[in-house]
Amino acid sequence: MASRDPIVDVGSAVEAVSADDVLPLHQIESLCMRCEENGTTRLLLTSIPHFREIVVMAFECPHCGERNNEVQFAGELQPRGCLYRLEVPSGDQKMLNRQVIKSDSATIKIPELDFEIPPEAQRGKLSTIEGILLRAVDELQALQEERKKVVPETAEALDQFLMKLKSYVTGDVPFTFILDDPAGNSFIENPFAPSSDPSLTIKFYERTPEQQEALGFLVDSSQSGEHETESAIEALTDGRRGDSNETKGEPHGSIGAVAGHRAIAQGNSEEVAAALFRYSAPEEVMTFPSTCGACSVRCETRMFVTKIPYFQEVIVMASSCDACGYRSSELKPGGRIPEKGKKIKVCVQSVGDLSRDVIKSDTASVKIPEIDLELASGTLGGVVTTIEGLITKISGSLERVHGFTFGDSLDDQRRSKWLEFRVRLNKLLSLEEPWTLIIDDALANSFVAPITDALENDHQLTFEEYVRSWEQNEELGLNDMDTSAADVDDSMTN
Question: Considering the entire predicted model, what is its pTM?
Answer without folding.
Answer: 0.51
